[in-house]
Amino acid sequence: MTVSALLDKLVPPDDFDARPAVDALLGLAQAQQASDLHLRPTQDKVEVLMRLDGVLSPRFEIPAEAYPRLLVGIKNAARLASYKKAVPQDGRLTHAGVEMRVATVPTHFGEKVVVRLVAGVGLIPSVAELGFSPPELAALEAMALQPQGLVLATGPAGSGKTTTLLSVLRWLVDKHRQRYSAALNVVTLEDPVECVLPELSQTAIQPELGMTFASGLRSLLRQDPEVILVGEIRDGETASAVTQCSLTGHLVFSTLHTRDSVGVVPRMLELGVEPYQLAAGLVGVIYQRLVRLLCPDCRRPVEPETRLVSECRAAGLSLSTAYGPGGCPACNQTGYRGRTAVPELLSVDDTFRQLILERASLRSLLDRARQQGTIPLRQAGLSRVVAGVTSYDELCRVVPG
Fold first, then answer.
1. Is the dihedral of CA 162, 164, 167, 169 positive or negative?
2. DSSP of 231-249, one letter per residue?
3. What confidence score (pLDDT) does residue 11 get?
4. Phi (first) and psi of residue 347, to 5 degrees
5. How far is Cα 119 from Cα 283, in angstroms, rounded to an integer?
6. Residue 97 confidence (pLDDT)
7. Are residues 166 and 197 in the same domain?
């Protein structure tokens, strides 16, 4: 479906049946592999934007007079009340086999709509496809093979934390089956369950019914689990419950928001976890960001910036050729196609545990992490620039130095 064909379906605006236009709009978002679709009304038009590879990009505009019809069609598809225009609403729909979450909010020029396209099982990469280097992948797998303990994935929203953990869990199930010819009971507690994986037993929290991450975890412990994923640590109760669970024979994965790998220590202590519990339970941290991949069909050599050359030299990296984005039909003229993870991996050793017990400063924790081989996020990103898989501008956008 082309943009012009979509706009044709919106004319005449007084034709109430908006289903063909809704189908065309959602199909266009799927075809362009958008993660989010935005409809943003302004004074005399409605802007259509799509988040492609993590970047929100304007795509085209819809006449303001056609928007009410389209809005009603989207609300009906998501089972929202079309007559409620002054309050936010949330709903869901399925289009061409893809689940989508719809959120509306009133603005000065009308209701704004955001449609989140939820990744399907086929869109969860294998651990080999995450973009980790061989040493990074070995460290990640070593964390996942611990018999018990707490593994935390950290980073800002949209940095791929949950995708990485789900990928690791699938790998762990396969590894267990190959090594022991046995099943592995993996249970998850999520908000919501965005990607259904047949290998896992997945449960969505329902706060309105009293089922939070903390209370739900207590219920999951009665399901004889070996591995547990708790979608996010949001409060002290969940932080304590997750840590305690990791000390009772379970391997627990969860996510947190911090600015680097060692930042999980002060954050968990701030949430009320006792140092002795965290020191005993924590086995590893995955701090990551996502950078866009240069389109292999149109990437082009560029003159490396002086700052890039200096950074590479300081990091001990040899830069032969730097690449930048071009632009071609394969990448929608953006110069980028797809994304890859840039991780900072912290494996907790006995010395690091002692620092946790002593409530050591962040600087002391950081120094120990570097001593034991943790590669800083920026340096891990530079290695991707040197390899030609992303650009220096993209690295600076995602991981400012």
1. negative
2. S---SHHHHHHHHHHHTTT
3. 63
4. -100, 125
5. 29
6. 85
7. yes
- Give the C-alpha separation, 223 to 51, whole Å: 38
Task: Tell whether the model's pLDDT for residue 122 goes beyond 80.
Answer: no
Q: Three-state DSSP class for 288?
A: strand
Please check the confidence at residue 15 and state whether its pLDDT lies above 60.
no
Q: Of 134, 155, 179, nearest to 291 (Cα)?
A: 155
Rounded Cα distance between 334 and 55, Å, is 10
How many angstroms separate the CA atoms of 134 and 249, rounded?
A: 29
282-294 and 251-256 beta bridge pairing: unpaired
Nearest to 346 by CA among 264, 273, 231, 278: 264
What residue has token string 């120990």? 368
Cis peptide before 12 (omega within 30 of 0): yes
Looking up tokens 């650009």 gives 391
Amino acid present at 193: V
Element (H, E) at 322: strand 322-324
DSSP string, 137-151: HHHHHHHHT-SSEEE
Domain boundary among 63, 93, 118: 118
Both 383 and 324 in a single domain? Answer: yes
146 and 253 share one domain: yes
Q: Is the pTM of this model over 0.70?
A: yes
Token pair in block for residue 168: 């690791």
Tokens, residue 317: 């990296």
47 and 86, same domain (yes or no): yes
Contact 272, 236 (CB under 8 A): yes
Cis check: omega of the bond before 192, within 30 degrees of 0: yes
Task: Residue 208: give its domain's CATH number.
Answer: 3.40.50.300
What separation in angstroms does the CA of 132 have from each of 121, 192, 328, 342?
A: 20, 27, 27, 7
The boundaries of the domain holding residue 114 are: 3-118
Could you give the angle at which helices 19-31 and 67-77 cross, rounded to 10 degrees?
80
Beta strand pairing status for 110-117 and 98-107? antiparallel
For the chain, the domain total comes to: 2
Angle, CA of 166, 193 and 292, to the nearest 5°: 50
Query: Which amino acid, one-letter code, is at 233?
Result: I
- Secondary structure class of 23 (helix, strand, coil): helix
